[in-house]
Amino acid sequence: MTKISKTVSIPSVTIDNLSDYIELIEDITNKNPRKTIIYRGQPQDFDLLPSIARKNNKTDTTIKEIRILEEFKRRSRLKINTDFIDDWDWLIFAQHYGLKTRLLDWSSNPLVGLWFSCNEQNNLGEDGVIYIFKAKRSHLLNRKTDTKPFERNTTRVYKPHLNNERIIAQSGWFTAHGYSSTADMFVRLNHNTLLREYLEKVIIPSRIKERIIEKLDVLGINYERLFPDIDGICKQMNYENKL
Fold first, then answer.
1. What tens digit of pLDDT does each residue of 39-53 get?
2. Which H or E run contains 37?
3. Residue 17 and residue 33: Cα distance in Å, rounded?
4. Is the pLDDT of residue 153 over 90?
5. How far apart are the C-alpha atoms of 45 and 239, rounded to whole Å?
6. Is the pTM of this model over 0.70?
7. Which of 12, 99, 205, 214 could be 94's S-S partner, Cβ–Cβ 3.0 to 4.6 Å?
8. Which segments within 49-178 are labelled E, that is strand?
9. Phi and psi (nearest 5°) for 205?
């Protein structure tokens, strides 16, 4: 393991191989037995913002989001066979199919996070990154009391209901973000002064990405496993045949 540094008060470690990463995860897990640890892999290092806020995080999209979700419900009801409890469930389902929301994807499986940091062919020349969030109990969203996602203006860690196959396959978790009336923006999680001390960052050098993907494939972490549908099968076949 090499080169330890700090960026925006977030400890950063660069690994050289899969063994380094597994050793690091074991160390973090042993040191944080009472915390919920989640992982977000990115093919390059960009700010931790949900998709609804990436175009302009200083725009309050709350009213628009409410309107969009209601319209999504109207258009999709005949295509859905699942009964959703509240708008959190609707947001998870909509995000699954590509609607921009205030949710940011994470995983409780460190190998899934690693895969997502390495898999995009268009970014093999860029260093990947895995953000690790070591969340305390107080960081977790309480579904019983926090039932309205558009009334939340702070970030919470959200363990979703398992309402689609990808969430199950990817051990999916989320961070639920909100527009801060104090800061007048969606605050980047990696700049959040209240939460960034619970973040750690792992850098995956571009030179080892392809080798990491090969090793993860042997361990059963691949397109077909993480995307259990026809799309995942096709992408895995493309990978296996070097297409």
1. 999 999 999 999 999
2. strand 36-42
3. 25
4. no
5. 24
6. yes
7. 99
8. 103-107, 128-135, 156-158, 172-176
9. -60, 140
Q: Which two tokens stand for residue 182?
A: 């104090």
Beta bridge partners of 15: none
φ, ψ of residue 167 in degrees (nearest 5)? -60, -45
> Torsion angle, CA of 98/62/52/70, rounded to 10 degrees?
10
Is the Cβ–Cβ distance between 172 and 107 less than 8 Å?
A: yes
Q: What confidence score (pLDDT) does residue 2 get?
A: 40
Contact 173, 158 (CB under 8 A): yes
Which of the four pLDDT bands, split at 50, 70 and 90, describes residue 6? very low
Cα distance between residue 139 and residue 158, in whole Å = 9
In eight-state DSSP terms, residue 38 is: E
Q: Write out the residue range of the structural domain in which residue 205 sits.
A: 2-240
Question: Strand 199-204 relative to strand 10-14: parallel, antiparallel, unpaired?
Answer: parallel
| Stretch among 4-13, 105-114, 225-234 having the lowest mean pLDDT | 4-13
Amino acid at 232: G
- What is the Cα–Cα distance from 35 to 116, expressed in whole angstroms? 23
Looking at the chain, how many residues does it have?
A: 243
Name the residue with higher pLDDT: 63 or 8.
Answer: 63
Written as six digits, the tokens of 86 are 């509240």
The span from the first CA to the last CA of the chain, in angstroms, equals: 33
Residue labelled with tokens 């002064």: 193
d(CA 79, CA 157): 29
Split into its structural domains, the chain has a count of 1
d(C-alpha 72, C-alpha 68), whole Å: 6
- In whole angstroms, how far apart are CA 35 and each of 22, 117, 137, 159, 195? 18, 23, 7, 14, 14
